[in-house]
Write a structure and sequence with these properties.
The protein is mainly β. It has one domain: Jelly Rolls. Helices cover 6% and strands 45% of the residues. The protein has a 16-stranded mixed β-sheet that branches. Strand 8 and strand 9 form a beta hairpin.
């Protein structure tokens, strides 16, 4: 009898997700959907976010997250981003992986080694070298990336990588398209700016 009860408890036990950061600013409305849940819940300022959460914003909304290594993720309106993986222990196991499904997001890297950060969109993979850059994913997956500081590497999912430096804007239309240089930057989104301008 004890064996059966013990087995049942072990079989249903789930590891607790790791806290990876907090919401520093919520403008209008944002949500957080935990891994395995079918619906999201409203996300407020100073709430924790966890590995494998999906966060989203509404029309005219913004959400700023700060991860445990001080990396900032700023979302503009109508964005959906999955926080795939985060480990920060100041050793060789550090990693941050984020998937931007749609909308606009800005990344400002913190203390984590930049070469351990990966951003995925429906058509591209972005490798980071310590920087400040933004990503805009349209409903059809087309991705535009512009770099404010530093340098990144942009690779179509089925193509060759290209290095993109500060001041450059590039786009990837499909997973098999080459990186398009001198792309048109999308209209400004207030969610990408500093929190002091939004309060």
């Amino acid at each position: 009898m004890n064996f059966v009860l013990g087995f049942a408890a072990t079989a249903t036990a789930q590891p607790r997700p790791e806290v990876i950061g907090t919401s520093e600013l919520v403008l209008f409305w944002a949500s957080r959907q935990a891994d395995g849940e079918t619906r999201g819940q409203a996300l407020y300022e100073r709430q924790r976010v966890f590995a494998r959460d999906t966060v989203a914003t509404a029309d005219r909304a913004a959400l700023h997250l700060q991860f445990n290594d001080s990396t900032e993720l700023r979302l503009g309106e109508n964005a959906v981003v999955q926080l795939d993986d985060f480990v920060y222990r100041r050793d060789s196991a550090d990693r941050l992986a984020v998937s931007v499904a749609k909308g606009v997001a800005r990344f400002i890297t913190g203390r984590m080694q930049a070469d351990r950060i990966r951003i995925v969109t429906p058509v591209s993979l972005i490798g980071v070298r310590g920087t400040d850059f933004s990503v805009w994913v349209e409903p059809d997956g087309r991705t535009t990336i512009w770099v404010t500081q530093g340098q990144i590497e942009v690779q179509p999912l089925n193509g060759a990588p290209e290095t993109v430096g500060a001041g450059e804007t590039v786009a990837v239309a499909t997973s098999a398209s080459p990186v398009q240089r001198n792309a048109t930057r999308p209209p400004p989104d207030i969610g990408l700016g500093p929190a002091r301008e939004l309060r």
